[in-house]
Amino acid sequence: MTEAVLLVGGQGTRLRPLTMETPKPMLPVAGVPVTEHQIARAREAGVTRIILGTSYRAEVFEEYFGDGARFGVELVYVTEEEPLGTGGAIRNVADYLQSGPDDPVLIFNGDVLSGVDLRGLVNRHTSDDCAVTLYLTRVEDPRPYGLVPTNAQGWVTGFLEKPTSPEEIVTDQINAGAYVFRRSVIDQIPPGRVVSVEREIFPALVADGARVAGHVDNGYWLDLGTPMDFVRGSCDLVLGVAPSPALPGPIGESLVLAGARVGEGAVISHGSVVAAGAVVEPGAVVAGSVIMANAFIAAGAKVYGSVIADGAHISSGASLHGVVVGPRAVVGALNELREGARVWPDTRLADLSVRFSSDR
Ligand code: GTP
């Protein structure tokens, strides 16, 4: 079938502090890196060779995935010394592609979970002899995304990045972050400089009258770019709402990985995952959350809709709603943290039990 390119070089600024040490595509959702879910889906659709376009923390990918044999695909790594943007990254891997000039090449953003029918996407591309075919999805609020209107025949008529005024919201179809490129179109992207496919390449192709198709797929789709979407994506995988052949356990209310310890009477629910080496003590509540490796949730702590990164410690009686706690941070007893709070790596929030007892 087709060769694929995975773009995994972004800084993932919206997911800080989680991305300060780990690139976004390597963060675990439902127990394995986002990239592993993507590789498994591509492989299932018949892809046998994948090129990873890396930049930020490039070494982390090869350390985990090696030559790809363990994952049933051949993996090739191409690293940009300076990040070249989405288009520049695609052009940068051109010399490593084995496809012929008219062959289809699949391109994936490295932070999307989706149930798109990949074979259907490639079939549309080849049967309509397209230069580029974009996977589009429909969303209720398209404002944070790139809008892609199409005509009645499904040809793309324009690109609007992140609309700001109501007049600019001309469609609910958005760029879902996967494309099929005719290989020769990749070779035409200007080499050696920063290029955005969304802002430069796609609008130029449409303006030149190239055959750019929009393939709307109404299956599962989620961009994992923000902390709350990241948590949601992990829970959707655990609950079986998002499809993945790489889930490291059966779908269900929760996923407790081998090597995790969950005390009796602890409640783990709403799609939560507890990774290897993590401890959830008796009487703790973990709902709709991601507990990463070696994290510790003490008895009586409550964690809702939150990410607790590697080695972080949530003390007794602490209550967290919609929060990101960075690696090795300590949230002292009785702290209450609410939506949007982010605790930086290695930070310590004081134990409040002493203060509360002296108030009495
Ligand atoms: P934010 O900083 O939070 O916006 O995240 P991001 O850096 O990942 O940017 P964005 O979500 O727009 O990127 C979409 C996809 O393209 C992600 O999978 C990124 O890893 C990837 N990407 C973005 N810029 C580059 C780049 O310069 N080089 C490479 N190789 N990949 C990139």
Describe this structure in words.
The chain is α/β, with parallel strands linked by helices. The chain folds into 2 domains: 3-223, Spore Coat Polysaccharide Biosynthesis Protein SpsA, Chain A (Alpha-Beta Complex), CATH 3.90.550.10; 253-359, UDP N-Acetylglucosamine Acyltransferase, domain 1. The protein is 20% helix and 28% strand. The chain has 8 helices and 30 strands. It has a 7-stranded mixed beta sheet with strand order 5-4-1-6-11-8-12, sandwiched between helices. Helix 3 crosses helix 6 (197-207). The termini are far apart. Bound molecules: guanosine-5'-triphosphate. Guanosine-5'-triphosphate is lined by residues 7-14, 24-25, 53-55, 80, 83-86, 89, 109-111, 225. Guanosine-5'-triphosphate binds next to strand 4 and helix 3.
And the CATH topology of the largest domain? Spore Coat Polysaccharide Biosynthesis Protein SpsA, Chain A
The overall pLDDT, averaged over residues, is 95
Q: What fraction strand? A: 25-35%
Strand element count? 30
Helix content: 10-25%
Uncertain ranges: none
Radius of gyration: 22 Å
Task: Please name the CATH architecture of the largest domain.
Answer: Alpha-Beta Complex
What structural class do the secondary elements suggest?
alpha/beta
Bound molecules: guanosine-5'-triphosphate
What spatial order of strands do you see in the largest sheet?
Answer: 5-4-1-6-11-8-12
When the domains are counted, the total is 2
CATH superfamily of the largest domain, by name, is: Spore Coat Polysaccharide Biosynthesis Protein SpsA, Chain A
Gross morphology: elongated
- The biggest beta sheet, please? 7 strands, mixed
Distance between the termini: 70 Å
Number of helices: 8
CATH class of the largest domain: Alpha Beta
Looking at how many chains there are and whether they match, the oligomeric state comes to single chain
